[in-house]
Amino acid sequence: MVRERVAGARVCLCHSGRRRFHAKLVEEFMSKWGGEVSREIGNKLGISSNVVAQIIPQVVPLILSGLRKQKDERGGEARVDHILNEYGSASFLQNIAGLVAQKATDPSADPQLGGLLGPAGVQATQAIARQFKLDPGVATKLIPMVTPFVLAALRQKRATQKGGSSAVAALLDREGDGNILDDAAGFLMKGLMGGSGSRGGAQAVGNVLSSLFGKKKQ
Predict the structure, then answer these.
(1) What is the pLDDT of residue 140?
(2) DSSP annotation of 180
(3) pTM, whole model, 2 decimals?
């Protein structure tokens, strides 16, 4: 287990086999959009935005890992491009409240995200519901609500970074470990607990929340 202090937050970098999970994209997403996404989802689902802010940094790696697996097993960069084009409109980040409102009333919310996460999405949802004592129906909406914003962030990165699709593929190689989908619940709980029990987890969560909510809302 390795820890790094990033932008005022202690971020857990968990080992899985021989690969280390890097926190760069999680840090970037939370810094730019995490506060607003957390507040809007919390408001619409009737749960604390602080809870949502604890969940998002654990969900993002699952999504990256799903994309990495799709890239490696289902068609390379072209497969990732298709997913980003189909489900990651850049406009989502310009109208966070609108998309959250739409997703909150979607009766067909699927934590498996089709085949992107598969059963790992259900495992993660169940772990979230248990950890935060959430109604299962509420917990089921969380991953489908967060995912479009993560995909939109990746699509934006593809459009602005030198290398385009190849840059995104390299990012997935660096930050996505498909193996964590084999034990999504275990990965999620280690992340939420800081990897070293409740005391370490509480301290890490406190640092994340101070970073997000301790400053003026955007």
Answers:
(1) 96
(2) G
(3) 0.76
